[in-house]
Amino acid sequence: MLAVYVLVSVGLAYTAKQLIYRWSHRIRRHGQRLRTPPGTLPFFGNGLKFLLLDRQSLFDWFSEIHNDVFGFETYEISVPTLPPGIVVSDPEVLELVMKKEGKEGFGKGPFFEERSWHLFGHGIINASGQLWKTQRKAGNKFFAGSHLQVLVDEVFPKYWEKARQELDEAADTGKVVDMEELFLEFTTRVMGRVAFGMDLSNSHPFSAAFDYASDLTGLRFQNPLWKLNYYLFGHKFRSAVSIVKSFGNEIVRLAVCRREQKTLNTPDPSGDGGDLVDMLLDAVTEPHVVADSAINFLSAGRDTTANSMTWMLHLLMENPDLMQYITDEVPPPGTPHTYSTLATPSTPRSHAVFLETLRLYPPVPFELKQTLSPDGIILPDGTVLPHDSIVVWCPYAFGRSKRIWGDDAYEFRPDRWLEQSAAAGDDGDAEGGTRLRVRSAAEYPVFNGGARSCLGKRMAEVMGVWVLAESLRNWEFEEVEKVGRRRSRNSLTLPMDGGLKVRVRRKDSVGC
Ligand code: HEM
Question: Which tops the pLDDT comparison, 336 or 207?
Fold first, then answer.
């Protein structure tokens, strides 16, 4: 009996605390409460939606609400146990959120940091203040132009070799290939080289542990009961994180040995200063922070780029008339496709396909920040955000916004990214005067914007465009099972559920 009293009292005290907190943190606009989405329940708010829907359905829900209900209006969402939150859909409002990064504005905050701490630790994705700045500086240095050129001209062809053999073999034997796996192996190898300076395969136990831990970390953002889940059933998650951390620490130990012996006997993708782990070791003193950081860079670049390649190939197979559109602008099979031949002015259509794919399938489909300013913040539309409140935006819904992209927002139409310049041959134009249209980060938040915009954007672009060209100029692809609209599976990023199984045919003249 006593136990029941205790439980009821604790429950009532908790509910009272929640109600007081919510009351004192009310979000208002011009003195009024914000509207809430249809179906919002008393007390539970939108909690059940977050708990029960898979991630893709949640993103579709955000898109529907934007297109059919609220348009650009900022609205409120509430989930019991979480700070009050709003969803932003207006690029003008998002622009301010992106600009006000920092402790006087918005930041990752405890909401994000708590959920991603186990996996990302002190790494750049989770860090703030000086720790973030130091890693950002090291990353900026690494991604300076010449490093990218070495990656494209030396590292990509080396690691693509395995994919090339697998595709040729599949063409000869009729074997089905899962292109999602093939792309992931390629991006794992490239990112293993970039972040750790080592050969890393997707079949390494680290990769499986990392995938498992990222999937569960992604789910924490929509499960208000994630902590309970972690303490009661988190054994597998804990051992996955421990494998990831031990791997990171071992990599750093090896890098330190290499530096001490000054015998860098692995190819140096940067050409002038080693791989990223070396640059991080120059900047950060604690080895465990370097380990976290290197894992964060790997995480930021590996799945995102593999996702983009997979969706790109899928969309092109659905729109076969666009295949020629790409191959017309890339060098023929057998001739090298280098950093200079894939520059944006020479391959605007390939870049347009890449950007258009990411508009519909952004590998980071959901973003959030917390209001760090102690005095709160007023958004351009008059919404007053108290300290601590959460700001959510959904790049997936931004990409499908009819207000931003027009009535054909759900259609794959790379041409929307191209425009004709006044005169053919203008500076930076392709032959014929076709060039890429620029969209602001606030309209196209696929790579985030402001101080924490993606550090690897250019690398992702060149990787995507390079792989697209290599694939399409050498082989023809046919999706094995057309299973209706493809969906994404639950993860931190946007992998294709069930993979992308294809049959392959060699093009007549296959290059080396
Ligand atoms: C298509 C591929 C990619 C997409 C769509 C993408 C998108 C993003 C987005 C949305 C963010 C902000 C995340 C946040 O708010 O926490 C981000 C951050 C970041 N990205 Fe990318 N990314 C891609 C590829 C890459 C690659 C190849 C790298 C290379 C390592 C990379 C490195 C980073 C880093 C280091 C950050 C953290 C920046 C910071 O917090 O200062 N990304 N990326």
Answer: 207
The Cα–Cα gap between 320 and 322 comes to: 5
Contact 274, 268 (CB under 8 A): yes
| Tokens, residue 449 | 């914007």
475 lines ligand 1 (CB under 6 A): no
CA of 148 to the centre of ligand 1 (A): 16
Counted residue by residue, the chain has a size of 512
Q: What percent of the chain has pLDDT over 70?
A: 89
For ligand 1, pick from 148, 200, 304 the residue to mutate: most ligand atoms within 8 Å of CB: 304
pTM of the model: 0.91
Q: What average pLDDT does this structure show over 457-465?
A: 95
Residue 394 labeled ligand binder: no
Supply 177's token pair: 């290939």
Instruction: State in Å: Cα 440 to ligand 1 middle.
Output: 17
Ligand 1 mean position, distance from CA 512 (Å): 32
| Shortest-distance atom of ligand 1 to CA 395 | 10
Calculate mean pLDDT across residues 178-189.
96
CB of residue 243 inside a 6 A radius of ligand 1? no
CB 217 within 8 A of CB 298: no
The finding on whether 115 has its CB within 6 A of some atom of ligand 1 is: no
Structure tokens at 75: 């609205």
Reference 374, options 358, 354, 389, 352; nearest CA is: 389
Distance CA 49, CA 165 (A): 45
Atom of ligand 1 nearest to the CA of 195: 30
- The ipTM assigned to this model is 0.99
Q: Answer whether residue 423 shows pLDDT above 50.
A: yes
pLDDT at 105 over 80: yes
Give the span between the Cα atoms of 201 and 189, in whole angstroms.
6
Q: Which residues pair with 433 in a beta bridge?
A: none
Structure tokens at 90: 């207006």
